[in-house]
Design brief:
By secondary structure, the chain is α/β, with parallel strands linked by helices. It is built from 16 helices and eleven strands. Helix 4 packs parallel to helix 9.
Length: about 450
């Protein structure tokens, strides 16, 4: 178990690194170079950033993506999934055959005094698909036109039971010290504002909506109208009013849209509460924490909907994503999309400025220069936002970005890494996780984590 006085330094590790480099190499690098106190290992995912190698070589491991579609990276047991349309779904292929990441890392972690955490990200839209998983199509959303959607429905009881079954299987059959659950999904209104198709309008959602007094057919009608306008199927140029006014008019005509957004979000956030309660039932002494999506810090709607105060009752720690170099272009992309939809008439610069005022982010860098990365002080600000929102004392482990390999993100230097660690300490974080994953990180930047941690927290950190 974790020493409560120890500053948490989690190293996020994709299963592929264990296969490519071996457990001892990865754990030695995590502990000796990055001063890690915990190995945070992905146990189940379909999202590339949690299981892949980077396209650009990081200087260690094997070059280039492996292309595996993912699944579960520990041994699963069919008896936990009886009656469900989806099994534990072990990741297959020669790379992962026989690799149980928790069993593989456990002895090495224990002998080094490292804690071992499992990590699972609730299904998101960051690139992973589950087309190869038998039964998964039965879990998918239905869009406003009656088409099957891209993501699983959070109101589908089989989907929720599947997630519970996965967690139960992991806890009952494996030895580890803690678990992290990633919360990275937003509701139908957000998706519409971004010009994406929305969900969900399946029979399960209709039941949930009806219980809340919401007519989901009317909600679907409203979304069809909004999205057809945004997608240009209805010529908005002939309309007298701008898009923002049409949106407001739509919300007044169809208040169900707001009611359904609230209902959907309650169901979604209820999922991690279920998981927390289950984890506490399974192993009350093992910390169970939540990964907090980066949009929480830049999206006024999400900040409003996600009640951080409530998390003190459904998490033992929080891991907010505060990748300061990546966040600059992410903010700009978000503002640009809004300026092409609900904020039509505003320039991307104006939309960005409005967003930052709404969420109370007073950044030294403005659009478009923020595309080169935000100052590391963003990490401190983010930690403080979370800490100030909580109803009690909950450890905050700032997820700092070390070599985030995504389009638009500038290269990370050791100075950037050290500044991020320092900002996390300044903000009052109880620790950090080095993110997104070891496979992406260069050795000099990995060492910079350790240099900063030892300088700021002492040799025994
Ligand atoms: Zn549904």
């Amino acid at each position: 178990m974790q020493d409560q006085g120890k500053w948490f330094v989690g190293m996020q590790i994709n299963p592929v690194s264990l296969a490519d480099e071996g457990v001892d190499v990865v754990l030695d690098a995590a502990q000796e170079k990055a001063a890690a106190t915990a190995a945070v290992v992905t146990v189940h995912t379909f999202n590339p950033e949690l299981m892949e190698r980077p396209a650009e070589y990081s200087g260690h491991g094997v070059r280039g993506p492996h292309g595996n579609s993912g699944g579960t990276f520990v041994t699963t047991h069919d008896e936990y999934y009886r009656g469900l349309p989806v099994s534990g779904f072990r990741a297959s292929g020669s790379l992962f055959d026989g690799l149980d990441v928790l069993d593989a890392v456990g002895p090495g972690a224990r002998s080094r005094g490292l804690d071992l955490y499992g990590y699972m990200l609730e299904t998101t839209s960051t690139g992973g698909t589950q087309t190869h998983v038998p039964g998964f199509s039965r879990l998918l959303e239905i869009d406003p036109w009656g088409r099957v959607g891209q993501l699983p429905c959070v109101n589908n009881p089989d989907y929720r039971l599947w997630k519970r079954s996965l967690l139960t299987d992991f806890y009952a059959t494996h030895d580890f010290d803690g678990f992290a659950w990633g919360v990275e999904r937003w509701g139908p209104l957000h998706r519409a504002l971004m010009g994406e198709s929305v969900g969900c309008f399946c029979p399960y959602c209709k039941e949930v909506a009806a219980a809340d007094g919401i007519d989901l057919d009317r909600t679907a009608t409203a979304y069809r109208a909004v999205l057809e306008t945004m997608w240009g199927q209805v010529d908005s140029s002939t309309e007298r009013d701008g898009f923002a006014l049409r949106m407001i008019d739509g919300l007044l005509q169809y208040p169900e849209v707001l009611a359904w957004e609230r209902s959907w979000t309650r169901a979604y956030l209820g999922l991690h509460r279920e998981m927390y309660g289950l984890a506490k039932w399974l192993a009350p002494d093992r910390p169970f924490g939540l990964g907090l999506w980066h949009y929480y810090f830049i999206d006024p709607l999400l900040r409003t909907e996600w009640n951080a105060w409530d998390w003190t009752r459904s998490a033992d720690f929080l891991r907010p994503i505060l990748y300061h170099l990546a966040e600059g272009h992410r903010i700009q992309d978000f503002a640009t999309k809004l300026s092409q939809g609900p904020l039509t008439g505003a320039t991307p610069e104006e939309a960005c400025s409005w967003l930052m005022r709404m969420v109370g982010l007073d950044l030294d860098v403005k659009f478009p220069a923020m595309g080169d990365g935000l100052p590391a002080d963003y990490v401190r600000t983010g930690v403080e936002i979370v800490r100030n929102s909580l109803a009690g004392d909950l450890p905050v482990y700032a997820a700092i970005g070390v070599d985030i390999r995504e389009k638009g993100c500038p290269a990370t230097t050791p100075e950037d890494v050290e500044a991020a660690v320092e900002a996390a300490v300044d903000g009052g974080a109880a620790g950090i996780t080095a993110s997104r994953n070891y496979a992406e990180m260069t050795m000099p930047n990995l060492e910079a984590v350790g240099t900063a941690v030892r300088r700021l927290r002492g040799a025994g950190a």
